[in-house]
Amino acid sequence: MNFRLGESFISPPTTSESINHSHGRHARSSSAIPKSLASLANEYRRLAVDCVRVLRLEMQLEAIYHMQEMTKREYVEDQDAEDPDDFIISLTTQIARRDEEMAPYITESERNYIFGGISSVAANASIKALAQMKSINLLGVQQICRNSIALEQALAAIPSIDSEAVQQRLDRVRTFYELLNLPFESLLGFIAEHEYLFSAKEYLSVLKVNVPGREIPADAERRISQILGH
Description:
Component of the exocyst complex involved in the docking of exocytic vesicles with fusion sites on the plasma membrane. The protein is mainly α. It is about 65% helix and about 0% strand. The longest helix has about 55 residues, at about 15-65.
């Protein structure tokens, strides 16, 4: 068999072979695209979840940062204030602004998750702050209660947030600080009835802080410890 220079040793494919070969390439490309898109979609979903978690952590840190101001402030007041403390106004303003910014892009359930941890962080910080206070009076107690009410209202304004859980956590703060207004015998009665509402350390911090006009017997700590079983 004679071949001219440049002539292929392999005969060109038939029309049907060419079509089948082209179809195979197309089929492989078509199947590869959805797989690639699915992988990309999963990656974006994971990223979205991470973003929501970061936003929740950021708002909790914001709350911690603002609530630290309680330990730097004196709560011995000489007149009844009308407004919450400046750090509470700043925090509630921040909450409202962030929620407004997120609303067009983040679902209500996700916003509930992002802002839902603030009340717990703020409540714990408020209760722990008493141990670092030297003195507090009746008007100081009222101011702290006013702060917790303002924070509760700010959080309750967020759609789909668990308002009942927020109220329970911040009610606990108000109950805790109102113990400072009780005479010692009434405080003992409350502790006997609500032994597990607060920890022993928290009950003792109520006892140790100076409240002008409140009389505490010398054996007060021993009597409270007996009730708590310590």
